Amino acid sequence: MAETPPATMPAPRTDKSAVLRELSDTSAAGMSRRLGPDYKSLHTTPEDFPTIYVAPDKRFSGASGHYQYGTPSSSGGDFSSTQGQILYVPNSGGIGCDRVTIIEWTNGVFTESPQPPWHGGSWRPDGMTGVWSRVATGGLGQPIAAARGMGGWSNCGLVLTSSGFIGTSGTVTAAATSVAYQFPRNKLPLAISITNKNELALVTVVDTQTMQGQVAVLMLCSSSKGGQFVHEWPDDYPGLPNVAMFTGMKMLGYVDLPGVTFPTSVCAVGNHLPGRLNGKDGNAGLLREWDLKKAGDRESFFKGNNADFSSSAGFAVIGAKYENKAVFLDLQPLFQRVREAYFTSDEEFAKTRKFGNGKLWPPTFEFEPNWKPAVIKTVDVAQPSAVIASLAGGDQACALVASQDGTVTVFSVGGLSTNEAASADTITSVATFKVGRNPTCLTYQKGSRDGFIAACRGDREIDWIKANSSGGSVTRRLRDAHLLDPVAVEMADTHGIETSIISVTDFQGRKLINYRCSELRFVTNGGAKFGMGPAGKDEFECGGAMEFPGYPFALSATNVN
To answer: CB-side exposure of 332: number of CA atoms within 13 Å?
Structure first.
């Protein structure tokens, strides 16, 4: 078994060469330094942690072979699962990216523990890693970050590697494509975010020649051309909301971040989730119904009953831990121009049918400078270790910036989340509160417009947060003796059952752990209900854990449909 990496001190913040070396180190010790202080480094006296009940594992002859709740049936009944990518630093060689089943519901039973995919195939490492290795130029490096659009169904995510390569990967029914992007060698990638419905990917980089921190903006495209996926647009519409069966990715350009060399975290959002897509018959519809060559179809998305399907504004918040800064970027020019191009006149739409480099659609910032995102405000924040922006726009939209000492600052964002002009004056701190120390990850509490979750490495805890433009607070905390080193957390998608389950990457514990945080209900198969704990009355329940041959530090998963 590999030795646990020591909690060594990070590079001095004034020594840019040392910081650059630190952020280029993808070893277990290097990743641990990048993540920041762990529990042992902040606690001289160990604490007694509660031991959360672990649901007993039961065996059956169905797809996954084991389960925790329900009665096995020979009939498949309603079924669903959540799958995605887990990134880790391998103990010895290989590529640290596995495809894992987070939860599964089939044959009348529910499995709330993470597991290898029941269908087998290439999962350790993820089968797409072979494609990446063939496509990448100059070596693939190691995966360092993963992202999906969090506003709805996102079949495939993007995985960013240390060499500056971006590849796609998905699930058993959305295996991904060979669409990829390779950054130039002078761009060291640090973090990635995808807007609500997979319109844009924003990647923070360091230009190692100029030592300038930047945000790279890539426009994403997904379609069902060639019969690839029936839920998607019938043609390529780069920059429009989609369900992430990616067919294209184009670099639009870079935005310099004043006073920042090392932009260590990023979150980008639009101002619409969106919600329901209306079909032509007035019922819920699919994107494949709509042909934007037709003026009537375009009108539906511009001023009709699907006018809120695509975002008209948006923003990004960037954390710079080494410079003690947070930066706010306005995405409204991009979102508005995309809407105008696709949904207005025949002449405008015709411009979107000429794909290619440079000035062809979508044009780079060099040829379309008016839609280049602008830096609206830079604020001083002590050691920002994680950032997040609320998915839904409007007056209640906010951004959260978590500091290494556990302070979370809530910012109202004004016109960044509405159709009003963005203004530095309206980006203001409205509240601060404390979570556990060294919050390394902020994620969304799915189903809640103002709910977030933090993984706090320094105090070995998971914190639930409620926040909007009026303020914020911690509403719930989870600590467990099984959980040694939480560094990332995500709430699972569900279908057919109703419950709240979080998955946590345990870096030094070398495992992925699931926790159930609410009653489990079999909504579409009989209505049975199950509480948490041995008597069904506990606040939390541990669904189980999955071990890894290395140190897991990130995850990104989605419902399989």
So the answer is: 18
The domain of 173 spans: 16-274+310-560
pLDDT (0 to 100) of residue 225: 82
Give a yes or no: residue 293 inside a domain. no
- DSSP class per residue in 221-251: EE--TTSS-TTS-SS--TTS---S-EEEEEE
pLDDT of 1 reads: 41
Integer Cα distance of 224 and 479 in angstroms = 44
Omega before 125 within 30 of 0, i.e. cis: yes
Secondary structure (3-state) at 557: strand
User: 3-state DSSP call for residue 469?
Assistant: coil
Q: Which residues lie below 8 Å from residue 86, measured CB to CB, with a gap of 6+?
A: 97, 98, 99, 100, 505, 512, 548, 552, 554, 555
Helix (H) or strand (E) holding 416: none
Q: How far is CA 163 from CA 144, 176, 182, 222, 325, in A?
A: 10, 20, 8, 25, 26
Report the alpha-carbon distance of residue 98 to residue 95 in Å, rounded: 9
Exposed/middle/buried for 542, CB within 10 Å: 0-12, 13-18, 19+? buried
Are β-strands 541-547 and 511-516 bridged in parallel, bridged antiparallel, or unpaired? antiparallel
DSSP H helices in 104-245 = 128-135
Instruction: Flag whether 453 is in a domain.
Output: yes
Closest to 491 (Cα-Cα) out of 470, 466, 515: 515
Distance of CA 166 to the CA centre of its chain: 14
Q: Which pLDDT belongs to residue 334?
A: 98
Q: What is the mean pLDDT of each run of 10 residues along the chain (561 residues)?
A: 52 84 97 97 95 95 84 85 97 96 93 91 93 93 97 93 97 84 98 97 98 98 79 94 94 98 98 88 93 97 95 97 98 98 98 97 98 98 98 94 98 97 97 98 95 98 98 98 98 94 98 98 93 98 98 97 71
Q: Name the one residue in this structure whose structure tokens are 């920002």.
A: 384
* Sheet arrangement for strand 461-468: 439-444, 451-456, 461-468, 471-478
C-alpha count within 13 angstroms, C-beta hemisphere, residue 1: 9
Instruction: Tell me the one-letter amino acid at 175.
Output: A
Residue 142 belongs to a domain: yes
Which helix (H) or strand (E) covers residue 253, if one does?
strand 246-256
Full DSSP string of 101-119: EEEEEETTEEE-S-B--TT
9 within some domain: no
CATH number at residue 220: 2.130.10.10
How many independent structural domains does the chain possess? 1
Can you give the pLDDT at residue 78?
86
Q: CA-to-CA distance for 478 and 455, rounded, in angstroms?
A: 10
**Residues 6 or more apart in contact with residue 114 via CB below 8 angstroms:** 100, 101, 102, 103, 503, 512, 513, 514, 543, 544, 545, 546
Please give the pLDDT value at position 9.
53
The residues near 93 (Cβ < 8 Å, ≥ 6 apart) are: none
**Is residue 286 within 8 Å of 347, Cβ to Cβ?**
no
CA distance 170 to 154: 9
